[in-house]
Each structure stands twice: as C-alpha cells, then as structure tokens.
C-alpha cells in the first residue's frame, strides 16, 4: 500500500507536468514535458513530500523500476540503418566527442570536489543522453538516488537553456541548415530537448539532429556495461551485478527490433508516448527525494561543472562540424 501511494504521487505529478506542457504548446510555447517533470519533482521535495515515510517506497519504485522501463522503451526509437546513413567519419567524430566530453566532465567534477558518484553521473548525463543516462549509469554503479537528483536537475536545466540559446547563437556563428541539426544533436543533452531545439529549423534539419542524437543514445549500452564491469571487479567476493543489466539488454533488443522488423508508425507513436510518460513518472519520483539543503551546500560547484560541460560539448560540436 505504501508503494502504491508513493507511486500514485509520482504519476499525479507527471500528469500535471504533461498538462502544463500541452497547455504551453497550445499558446505557442514549447517546453519539453520532462523538463517540467523535474520542476514538479523539486516542488514536491520543497514541500516535504519526499521525506514522508509513507511515500518513500513508492517514490523509490518510480525512480528505479519505472526509470528502467522507460529506458527499455527508448531502444525502439533507434534504427541502426539511420545511424549508418551518417557515414563512418561522422559516427567516429560523434563518439569521439562523447568520450572526450565524458572525461572532461568527470575530471572537472572530481577537481571541484563533487561527492559520491556525482562525477560519474554528471559525465554520463551531459555527454550521453541526459536524465536517462544518469538513471541507467546510476543503477549500474549502485549510486544512491540522492546522488542522482542534483545531476538530473542540472542536466535538465542546462538542456532547457540550450533550446533557446542554440538557435540564438546559430545566427552570429553562421551555423545553419544541416550543420545546425548536427550541432543540436551533438550538443543538447536530452532527446526531447534536441527535438525542441531543432524543430524550428524544419523537418529535414530535425531528422538530422535526431539521428545524430541517437548515436549518442546508442553509446548508453556500452557505457553501462563498462560501469557494471568495474563494479563487479570492485565488488570482491560478494554478490556482483551483471555485466550488462537486464534493462539494457531490453534496450538493445528493442533497437534491433526497430532495425530489422517493420514496426507500424502507430506502434512507434504509442511506444514513444509511453516512454515519455514512464520517464516523466520516474523523474518526479527521483526529484521529489532530492534534499535541497544538500544541493545548496554544493550548488556552486555543481553549477560550475554543468556550465563547463555544456560549453565544452557545444564548442566541441562546432569544431567537429568545421573539421568534417
């Protein structure tokens, strides 16, 4: 019963966030629903919902198991055929930028002294695919949910800023057409934020941005495998986590299905909606348990890392475009 109540709070919070997003879209303002879910979760944390013992197990369930379900469904958005169409030089450049950005963010976070697993989570979120990557890597590494909240909040905040910033910067930087799609796909953190950023430039640019972004999303599976493998070696003689967690296997299987099995557009649309809903519920559950006082104590360090990581990957993506 306790699990049900906490989960119900997360579902209700996500429902409110999606309604707000739809309402804003109706008046011509595009704000991704998942970004609003983060805000709703933080509001619930602020009013003390996450600290109530009767709700914690349900919020934990949302932040862990519902998050896994959303990550599995994310796999159906990936077609290896679309990725291969970019060409080998572009794929290598995107993966190379991801690796360099990951290492930069990780060591930057270590240098400024972020606690626990936050350096790893910040690096995964800013270099791969936002909150989904933080959830997947956090669970593979055994990071407590309290370590995941601040990275999720920051990667969502800075990704939302990018929705406005990249189109404004594109004009003076003379980044247009297909190049803008590559820039958005390589530099913006979350899939939904990439869509919001690139959609103003037209369907062709949006398609390019999404395919570039999916290269980064596909890197989630090997990243989680590496993190799990390191965890196994450090685990000693006790129970070890699997090298590839079951939810990542599901992610890969659905990506293979999308590539080699004809999937009706109606099914893809339904699964996409379900995937967004599941991640929304998970984000509300995760953020509702953030201890805002802890965030305040380390806030400046986290923001410095987030700002540096966002700038690094945006500049790196521009250099990548100019070099190809």
From TrEMBL:
Membrane topology designation: Multi-pass membrane protein
PANTHER family: INNER MEMBRANE PROTEIN YEIH-RELATED, UPF0324 INNER MEMBRANE PROTEIN YEIH
InterPro entries: UPF0324_pro
Protein name: Putative membrane protein YeiH
A Pfam family: Cons_hypoth698
Cell location: Cell membrane
Organism the protein comes from: Agrococcus casei LMG 22410
GO CC annotation: plasma membrane
Keywords: Cell membrane, Membrane, Transmembrane, Transmembrane helix
Family: Belongs to the UPF0324 family.
Organism taxonomic ancestry: Bacteria, Bacillati, Actinomycetota, Actinomycetes, Micrococcales
Domain of life: Bacteria
TM spans (from-to): 33-54, 66-84, 120-140, 152-173, 206-231, 243-261, 267-288, 300-321
